[in-house]
Amino acid sequence: MMVLEVSGIKKKFGSQEVLKGLDFSLPEQSVLGFIGQNGAGKTTLMKMIVGLLSSDEGTIKVCDEVVYYGNTKTNRLIGYLPDVPEFYGYMTALGYLTLCGEITGMTGPEIKLKATDLLNLVGLENNKKKIQSFSRGMKQRLGIAQALLNEPKLLICDEPTSALDPLGRKEILDILHRVKAQTTVIFSTHILSDVEKICDQIILLHEGEIKLSTTLAEMQDRYSFNQLLIEFNEALLPEDVTYLFKDLVVKVESGVYFIQGQELTSLQETLYPRFIQRGLFPKKMEVYQPSLEDIFSEVVK
After folding, report:
1. Are 5 and 66 in contact (CB under 8 A)?
2. Architecture of domain 2-222
3. Which of 194, 190, 224 is nearest to 204 (CA)?
4. Rounded distance, CA 259 to CA 264, Å?
5. Structural domain boundaries of the chain?
6. With 0-12 CB in 10 A as exposed, 13-18 as middle and 19+ as buried, what is 93?
7. At residue 223, does pLDDT exceed 80?
């Protein structure tokens, strides 16, 4: 089943066209990385999905139900974590989840069981501190627990790892990876390495348009670039470079050589005798796998 379907979505703010006809769908129990530079339109679309903004054109469906601005019956199917979640600072994490459960009509036993499970999931079990003393990462983790309280079909996280240190980012990513078994996840980010760690699907949004929509596996196959990466302990002399890489397509970046070729095994067989002839042996030679940063640059240039 498709948990989310976005069809022909357009949005303007004044004369600025922020979204230019977006189309994509997302199946259940998957993690979508929604990437793009700040201002690309990621947050605008997420607010539309939860009914906080109207579209100029197009429709959005959550589990086959149309999302209507200001009439958000579909939100019973959605958990939402904004980029900067706000809480009642005088409460504890358990107290806050209890309040949220009461508001949604859960019974006391249901709240206790669910809140306990979620606080264990996000690593805040037995935490008696007031929320006002929480770090940014702890607040993000509590926000994920709150967003999962109603067992949503779709969990939306807007920049959940921004402004976190590496450990805090890893904790959030680990949580999102674990909840994939329970719900479908969208998270937006401009930290491209985060997407590579946990996502099944990737949408690259640039200036209001989808420039790339693919699975992680398809993207890696499509953008393999067919290159060898070669690095030496010391800088090569110009005559060594000429001899080693004659008749080859080579690019140099910061002393690292990228050799282009369709048959990489044959390319290595060509290079080894040349290394021996010159008495030069690389400290590293490997098939180059481009990062998401490389692909982003390739797609939007």
Report:
1. no
2. 3-Layer(aba) Sandwich (3.40)
3. 190
4. 9
5. 2-222, 227-292
6. buried
7. no
